[in-house]
Structure of Amidase family protein:
Amino acid sequence: MKSAFESKSDGPGSQAPFNLMEATVATAHAAMREGRLTARQLVRGYLDRIWAYDQNGPRINSILRLNPEALAEAERMDAQAAAKPSQDPGPLHGIPVLIKDNIECGGIETTAGSPCLLGNMAVEDSFVVQRLRRAGAVVLAKTNLHELASGGETVSTVHGQTLNPYDLTRTPGGSSGGTGAGIAANFGLLGIGTDGVNSIRSPASANSLVGLRPTMGLVSRTGLVPCGLTQDTIGPITRTVADTAVLLDVIAGHDPADPVTSQGSPHIPPSYTAFLDPEGLKGARIGVLRRFFGNGPEHQPVNTVMLQALAIIEAQGAELVAVDDAIDPEELLATTLVHHYEMAHDLDAYLVRRARDVKVRSLKDIVASGNVHASVAGTLTTAVALAGNEAEYRERLQRQQALRQRLLDLMDARRIDALAFPHQRRLVAPVGAPQAERNGVLASATGFPAIVIPGGFSAANRDAPQGVPVGLEFFGRPFSEPELIRLAYAAEQALRARRAPHEAPALE
C-alpha cells in the first residue's frame, strides 16, 4: 500500500514527499510552509497507517474510534490558511492528535472503554480539547484505555487488548496505553493521556515515548471521566520533548470550571519551548533514588539500561547524587493513594451530569450491571466499599501532605534539581499479566510533576527484535515543568534512545 504523501492528486507533488515517520510539529509545519504538505494529506497519511497496522497487519488495536470529521476538519484548516496566508494559523495548525477515550470531544462518544458508558455523546469539548482546536489541531481519533482508567494493561470490554508495537506479546502499559501505542506506531502526531497513578508515564516508558504528568493545577480536568480528582491529571504523550513543550503551551491554563487551575496559572511561562536547552544537564544535581531500582534477576534488564543512561547523563555535566533515604514505592502505593476512596463520589457526580446519555447513575450501578472487564471488577468493588470511609481517607491525605514536605526538604537539603529513577523496575508486563513494580506513585501521591523519556531498550530477543523500551523518569518540585523540560530535553538529545517500532514500518 502507498502512503497518501505519494499521491500527486491530493496536493503538491512536485517536491520531495513529506516523511510521515517520526514527524514532529516542527517538521510538519516546515513542510506546510514549503508547500510540500497539507493538513488533509497529514491526516490521510495517519489514517492509512491506522488501517494498515492498527486494524490490520499486527492489529495493535490502539484506536478505539476514529473522528468521522477528521478529514473535513483538516480541509477547513487548509482553507483557512490559504485564505489568510499572512496570518499565524496557530501553534498546532493541522496537527492530528490522539485523545484518550475518557476525555470528552464534542460529537464523539466517550466510553472510557466501558459498555455502561456507550451512548455518552459529548455536546461540548472538554477544556483541553477546546484549547487544542483553538490552536488549530485536528482531533484524529479516540484511543483505547484500561477500562475506566482503572488498570495498567490497556484492556477494555469495549475494545479489547491493545498490544505493544515493540513486542506484540506485551502490553503497552496503561491506562493510557492506546494513546501510547498509537503515538509510538506513528498513528498520530501528538497524544493526550490521563494519569491517576502511572497512566501517562507508564505508556511512555513502555513505548519509547515522552510522557509528562503536570503539576496538579496546571492543566484542567473538565470533561474527564474521573477516577479520583485529588490525583487525576491530563497531560501530553509525544515522541519528543520538544513536542511535549509545544503541547503543554496549548493545554496549560486557568479553567474556572476546575478551580484547582487557579493555582497553576501564575506559574505558566510565555513558552515552555524556551527551556529546550541541549546543554541543560550541565551543572544540574540529580538525585538517584536507589530504592526505586529492583535488585533481583527480573530487574536486571531495566537496571542495565538505567545505569547506561545515567552514565551518559553524568557525562553531559550533571552531578548524580545517590539518595538512600527510606522512600519505599511499595509502601507509598499501600498507604498514600486516595483514588479508590474518591472514585464513587467523583464518578457518580460525572454520571449524574451525563444522565440523558447513559443508563447508569453511579459506580454501584456499574458494578451491579456485571458488565465490566474482569481486570477491573475487583478494583471497582473495592472503590464502592471504601466510599464514605472518611477516617482512612483523611489519614491518607495527611500522609500525602507529609510526603510533599519530606520530598521538598530532601531536595532542598541536598540541593537537588530533580530526582531520577526507572519508571518501572521490571520490563512492561506480558499480555494477561498484571503490571508490576511501577514507580509513578511519587508524583501521583504528591501532585508534583514528573516526566518520562526513552532511556533505552533491553536486549533483543525473538519476540522483540529491538528489545523492550525502558523509560527514565525525572521528578521535580511543584510547577517545575520548565526545569524538567530542560533536563529531559538535554538527556533526550544525549541518549538518542527513541526508535520507531519494527511492527509498524513506513508504508511504501
